[in-house]
User: What shape does this take?
Amino acid sequence: MDLRTVLDSVGSHFCWNSRYATIHAVSLIHLAPRELRKFQRKLLAWFAAGQRDLPWRKTKDPYRIWLSEIMLQQTRVAAVVPYYSKFLARFPNLPALARARTEAVLQRWAGLGYYSRARNLHRAAKEILARHGGGFPRGYDAALSLPGIGRYTAAAVLSIAYGEPLAVLDGNVARVVARLGAVRGNLRAPSTWKKLDGTAQMLLARDAPGDWNQALMELGATVCTPKSPCCAECPVAAWCRARKLGIAGQLPDSRAKRKPVRITLAAAVLLDPRGKTLVIRDGEGALFSGLWQFPVLEITANGAAQLRRHLKKIFGLTAVGQMMPLGAARHTVTFREVRLEPYLVRVAKLPRVQGARTPSLTRLADLPISGATRKIADAAISFCSRVPIH
Ligand code: SF4
Assistant: This one.
């Protein structure tokens, strides 16, 4: 039996409850219990034998698993590993994170991007300490009520840490399940997603939900990859309808992407004779919310001239010397493609700006800054080492 049969049977046979999204698909259990077990065993054995050696797979500590799941959102595994270790060295447990200052948390997150994740993680840690005594809640609804935790993260943490029978479904797992069932169309369409979710719940190995979820994720990340699935190496190829139909590489159907919004920002690295610079903290909801950054201005053309006028208007800076371009950089945040045009601006005296800070350019990394700001600072330091400041 292939999994199309499973999918077809899901729509009319499942019901949810808010606590565990449990599926009752009696027809499936009667249709293929032995095959389903075999399918589960194959995937679990493959995972046990060849899983990647990742630091968060060595623990059942819900705090550490939760942290890894949040860091892995929209971020590659290779990029996460060093941040994960450094973050844990500074905040080894949930109370340590909950009691930290937001600025210290953002600083450890700096460079990883999507900073709302760090702020929500911190808020959730405080809430867990206040309402659950510092232990990650075991209940699905309690986990879901925490900032930054959606169904996927709640299911991942509770299944891996506590063995709760909850199947995960994100884009990665949905792609695998859709290929197994040769599902066409937009996977994110609510009715399709509901069926995929129901199927994921039905496929779940209830005696090993944590390993099962990680095995499906691993399959999606290493074998059943988005562009060219390696069906020849797939442990569950025998059950895959897309492979049988020869359409594995065509699924899932590509969906219309949101058009990227392109903006260009000119950034001013103001530098006084002592080597000090000026940074401002981005407000809530801004591009680099909560992080310190150089004054920026959205520009349309001739960045240097516009920036010069802006500095005069906003900071009253009139005696601005030559503005040295530091090389443009690109930065993508979800659907926004930002082109950064930084300029080194030498000033006799930094302006006084409420709420701003004036650290040494070389000590800027002591503050929570984005990867983009760090790159600009490095370019400015490199420029100054070649060309004397004043
Ligand atoms: Fe994915 Fe191919 Fe395995 Fe099917 S057989 S699950 S398409 S890797």
